[in-house]
């Protein structure tokens, strides 16, 4: 009897077992080199299945030495590309070719492999896959009712995060330092269980990192080259809650059932966001909704009627495309972190699916601001209409998010009306924030003035914007006083005042138009509390000529030209840089001053231009 095993039965140890049972006594076993290559690659990557398979091959050699079977290694060895394409059937095809070549019984516990082999006329013996009972893992001895996570690393005592939600402490839970062999033994048991048990699975397997889900534990195993040495981090929830356990439970239930919603559950790490998300998912499911999840890794502890999905082909966008075909009423997205995640969340919400996303945020408003710049501003309330902020395991704040076209709070001019996102406290209806576009920037203005400041949120915003605009036109200090919803007074140095006002008041008029606010420009001496000084200029530009005219030099191959406004030909003037005297000149017939390049005066002027100093022309008194 000739027998060719595939990888599945070598891993399970089924061939040596059947030899010992007498079924394959005296058989010739042809082991494909492709099987050897595959299990060797698994062992090299730290996968327990590879080590189990190598042990089975050693048992077969021992049986051959005892004369009970003949063992031959035959066929092509799987190369790196074949191993990478194992899921596409590359190695399976090589193994089937060996069975056909040696006219052998092909033994497998892979149903797809068995059916393909039958289709090719190969004699097949299909063995039902073994069901492995999930016993208690050794690391579970480190857990108790208050343990959230266990951290194991060679050279250190076992550590754990323990305590009630909101009062968790990182503390040692062992007396002796762990050695490498012990941690590796724990890791091997975890991976083996995750690959074989019905209620466990491997979430991620990359070089240096394996993430497994075993019952309610999410276990990460890192090792070189990803980490400097092996480390195990096992996390499990310490509480399971229902909606009844939270503040505002009745109102939130009614809101979620009223219609499909876009909800962000926000909070700091360890605050209890995912625990609340689990409660929401099970409440929605119990209320008759089709609920799915999108998780990486899948670690929410949910009833069986909620299907949990992870990345499809390494992309959540593909998962979303698949879910849109399933058409759930609600999808729980744990966690929304990167721009791609926010885009997927937004696409699914705009497609009509109720979405509940879990995000990291240190303030309730921060969760909403993470959407700014990632989606169009006006679409935010259609994507997220509810923000739930979790702190120390309870619902701390709930925001209602809407939009309307209005004049932002604190502004008065009707022509300043624009789309405004209003963020209100859900329980009281009190406005908390407004988000809108101001001077081509998206701003978030707090409406709650309990921050110890006498300025309103919009006053602070207006002051900031006015300072920014004026500072761009000056080189000295700038002080701004907001006098009303649409009025500000700006104080600048004597040297800067004409530059701020601009030719004919043009520069200050442009700033006023951009900001939608009237600006009175004065000298710093005129600010209340300062010594009296020279009378300042207003935003209309009166007095600009007395202080001088700002000019923009033009440099040609032969001259530096200072163009002047008005009929000033023949007038004797001083040319200054940042108020510092450079030279005296006479305005030419064309109304400008020309300085021949190469002269000492021109070189001084060019140095001022290169240094970006403000060049002005003032009457020679």
Walkthrough of the structure:
The chain is built from 19 helices and 32 strands. By secondary structure, the chain is of the alpha/beta class. A hairpin with a 6-residue loop joins strand 7 (159-162) and strand 8. The strands form six sheets. The chain has a ten-stranded mixed sheet with strand order 15-14-16-17-13-18-19-20-21-22, with helices on both faces. The longest helix has 18 residues, at 48-65. The N and C termini lie far apart (119 Å). Helices cover 30% and strands 29% of the residues. GO terms for molecular function: RNA binding. It comes from Halobacterium litoreum.
Secondary-structure content class: alpha/beta
- The CATH topology of the largest domain is given as Rossmann fold
Which CATH class of the largest domain? Alpha Beta
Main sheet strand line-up: 15-14-16-17-13-18-19-20-21-22
The residue ranges in which pLDDT falls below 50 over 5 or more consecutive positions are 450-454, 532-546
- The N- to C-terminal Cα distance equals 119 Å
The number of E-state strands comes to: 32
User: In the residues, how many domains can be counted?
Assistant: 5
Shape: elongated
Using only C-alpha atoms, the radius of gyration works out to 37 Å
Number of helices in the DSSP assignment: 19
CATH superfamily of the largest domain: P-loop containing nucleotide triphosphate hydrolases
CATH architecture heading of the largest domain: 3-Layer(aba) Sandwich
Strand content: 25-35%
For this structure, the quaternary state is single chain
Largest beta sheet, briefly? 10 strands, mixed
Helical percent range? 25-40%
- The mean pLDDT is 83
GO molecular function, one term: RNA binding
Protein name: PINc/VapC family ATPase
Keywords: RNA-binding
Family: In the N-terminal section; belongs to the PINc/VapC protein family.
């Amino acid at each position: 009897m000739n027998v060719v095993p595939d990888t599945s039965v070598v891993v399970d140890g089924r061939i040596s077992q059947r030899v010992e049972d007498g079924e394959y006594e005296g058989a010739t076993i042809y082991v494909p080199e492709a099987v050897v290559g595959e299990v060797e690659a698994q062992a090299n990557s730290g996968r327990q299945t590879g080590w189990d398979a190598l042990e089975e091959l050693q048992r077969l050699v021992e049986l051959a030495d005892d004369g009970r079977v003949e063992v031959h290694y035959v066929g092509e060895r799987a190369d790196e590309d074949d191993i990478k394409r194992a899921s596409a059937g590359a190695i399976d095809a090589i193994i089937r070719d060996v069975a056909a070549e040696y006219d052998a019984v092909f033994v497998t516990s892979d149903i797809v492999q068995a059916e393909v082999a039958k289709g090719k006329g190969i004699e097949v013996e299909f063995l039902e896959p073994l069901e492995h009972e999930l016993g208690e893992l050794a690391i579970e001895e480190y857990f108790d009712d208050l343990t959230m996570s266990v951290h194991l690393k060679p050279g250190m005592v076992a550590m754990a995060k323990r305590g009630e939600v909101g009062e968790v402490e990182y503390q040692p839970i062992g007396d002796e330092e762990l050695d490498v062999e012990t941690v590796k033994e724990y890791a091997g048991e975890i991976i083996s269980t995750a690959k074989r048990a019905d209620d466990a699975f491997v979430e991620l397997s990359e070089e240096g990192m394996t993430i497994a889900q075993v019952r309610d534990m999410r276990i990460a195993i890192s090792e070189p080259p990803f980490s400097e040495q092996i480390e195990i981090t096992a996390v499990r929830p310490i509480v399971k809650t229902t909606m009844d356990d939270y503040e505002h439970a009745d109102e939130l239930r009614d809101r979620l059932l009223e219609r499909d919603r876009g909800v962000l559950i926000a909070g700091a790490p360890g605050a209890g966001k995912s625990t609340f998300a689990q409660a929401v998912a099970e409440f929605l499911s119990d209320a008759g909704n089709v609920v799915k999840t999108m998780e990486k890794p899948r670690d929410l502890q949910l009833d069986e009627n909620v299907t949990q999905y992870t990345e499809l082909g390494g992309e959540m966008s593909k998962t979303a495309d698949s879910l849109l075909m399933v058409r759930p009423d609600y999808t729980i997205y744990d966690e929304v972190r990167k721009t791609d995640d926010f885009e997927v969340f937004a696409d699914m919400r705009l497609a009509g699916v109720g979405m509940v996303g879990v995000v990291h945020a240190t303030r309730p408003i921060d969760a909403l601001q993470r959407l700014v710049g990632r989606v169009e501003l006006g679409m935010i309330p259609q994507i997220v209409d509810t923000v739930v902020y979790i702190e120390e395991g309870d619902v701390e704040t709930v925001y209602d998010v809407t939009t309307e076209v209005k004049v932002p709070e604190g502004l008065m001019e009707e022509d300043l009306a624009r789309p405004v996102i209003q963020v209100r406290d859900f329980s009281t209806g009190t406005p908390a924030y407004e988000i809108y576009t101001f001077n081509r920037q998206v701003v978030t203005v707090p409406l709650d003035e309990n921050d110890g400041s006498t300025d309103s949120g919009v006053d602070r915003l207006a002051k900031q914007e006015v300072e920014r605009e004026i500072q761009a036109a000056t080189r000295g200090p700038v002080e701004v006083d907001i006098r009303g919803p649409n009025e500000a007074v700006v104080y600048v140095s004597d040297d800067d005042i004409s530059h701020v006002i601009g030719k004919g008041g043009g520069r200050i008029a442009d700033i006023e138009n951009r900001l939608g606010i009237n600006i009175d420009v004065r000298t710093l001496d005129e600010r209340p509390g300062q010594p009296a000084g020279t009378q300042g200029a207003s935003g209309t530009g009166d007095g600009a000529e007395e202080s001088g005219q700002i000019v923009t030099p033009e440099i040609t191959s032969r001259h530096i030209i200072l163009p002047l406004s008005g009929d000033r030909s023949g007038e004797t003037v001083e040319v200054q840089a940042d108020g510092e005297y450079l030279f005296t000149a006479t305005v030419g017939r064309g109304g400008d001053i020309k300085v021949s390049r190469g002269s000492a005066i021109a070189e001084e002027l060019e140095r001022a231009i290169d240094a970006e100093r403000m060049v002005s022309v003032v009457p020679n008194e």
